[in-house]
Amino acid sequence: MTRSFLPAICALCVALASFAAVADEESPAGGYRPRTDTMRAPLDSAEHGSSRSKSNSAAGVVTPMMTAHPIPQFGTQVVTIAKPSIEKAPAATRENCALQTVASVDLRTLSSGLVTVPVTIQDREAHLVVDTGSVYSVVTQDIVDDIRASTRSARSILAGNMELMGGVIMDRVVEPRDFRIGALIGKRPPLYVMPSTAMGEDIQGLLGPDIMDKYDIEIDFAFGKFNMISPDHCAGSVVYWTHEPYAEAPIGRDDNRHITIPVVLDGTKMSAVIDTGAEGSAMPLSVAQRLLGIDVKSPGLQEVAPISVNGAQHVRAYRYPFQTLNLEGITVKNPDIVLMPDSGQGVPDLLLGVGILRQLHLYIAYKEGKIYATRAEAR
């Protein structure tokens, strides 16, 4: 994942087991419960329309003022959100639709563009990459050593050994006494253990969908906030932070828990994985040739510097001057997408990394099956 365009764990040839997390006071091992004294911080919901790219004009309550962080520009790509005619739906009542924050922490942006969140593993603070393209959550061996925790064979707990892109093997799992994200407390969650050399500097692991998908996830790249929100709310009443137009798209889930959305690249429909754990966006060369007629001999295709995959392998990479990428009302002009040789591990048509995603404010409603987005700076 880190320092690569393909995610560390999303392209795996393994059978995956489901992760059952519960949010009650009697949570079993691996379960999560909120610390009730600080959990319930309501966010007001907003009116919503019926079209896919919508205008949000309800007077929702915005979270306290924060300082915007500069957003790096990646090439010349520009993000715009369409503003079609709006058919208003009746405003829902606050009693039924107010969003309930389970955990809220600050994001830290790395030089690569990836974002991390602070967590506490037993008594050790760690910074994990927010990684929607992972399968499970992961910590480095350094963390395991620091908390002096024992590990178990991955075959005895989760899906078995996992081989990452680059040939890195994860075959051990740790179950820390407790795991905290803000006010959210997990007891003995199983976490894969990754060699510390496979991660970049200042990264101690990955926060994956096995923990995140029990909640709604809000990623505010520009203002540096990561919120985990109860999924029990009215459908569509989530874009509370702005009156600006917002985009809404259905999401699919593959067997590896990845979020997939329909996109159109230079007029061609395809499926894309939303991967906040990948620095850039990528497409296999076989997909480029099959769907777009682009190969290594195509005019405009240029070979670029090899790309490191999980610190263990370098692969050849190419760039092509794509014109537009459309994501259900969001248009990205001149999208920066790297073309790479196939890994042979079932990678998606297109992988969207933070090079594009961090120019948006994202709200992922796993239970509702939707993703919502505005401009990153929208307030």
Structure report:
The protein is mainly beta. It is built from 5 helices and 32 strands. Strands 1, 6, 7, 8, 9, 10, 13, 14, 15, 16 and 17 form an 11-stranded mixed β-sheet that branches. It has an 8-stranded antiparallel β-sheet with strand order 2-5-19-18-31-32-20-3, with no helix packed on it. The protein is globular, with a radius of gyration of 20 Å.
Residue-averaged pLDDT, rounded?
77
Shape: globular
DSSP helix count?
5
Instruction: Tell me the β content.
Output: 35-45%
> What is the assembly state of the chains in this entry?
single chain
**Roughly how many Å is the radius of gyration?**
20 Å
Structural class: mainly beta
Low-confidence stretches: 1-30, 34-52, 57-75, 83-94
Number of strands: 32
Q: Sheet with the most strands?
A: 11 strands, mixed
The amount of helix comes to: under 10%
Separation of the first and last Cα atoms = 31 Å
Lay out the secondary structure.
Layout: E1 31-34, E2 41-43, E3 53-55, E4 78-81, H1 94-97, E5 99-106, E6 108-109, E7 115-121, E8 124-130, E9 138-140, H2 141-147, E10 151-153, E11 162-163, E12 169-170, E13 172-174, E14 179-181, E15 184-187, E16 191-194, E17 205-207, H3 209-212, E18 216-220, E19 225-229, E20 245-250, E21 252-253, E22 259-265, E23 268-274, E24 281-284, H4 285-292, E25 302-309, E26 313-319, E27 324-327, E28 330-333, E29 337-340, E30 350-352, H5 354-357, E31 360-365, E32 370-375
Parallel strand pairs: 8-17, 9-16, 23-30, 24-29
Antiparallel strand pairs: 1-15, 2-5, 3-20, 4-28, 5-19, 6-7, 7-8, 7-14, 9-17, 10-13, 11-12, 13-16, 14-15, 18-19, 18-31, 20-32, 21-22, 22-23, 22-27, 25-26, 26-29, 27-28, 31-32
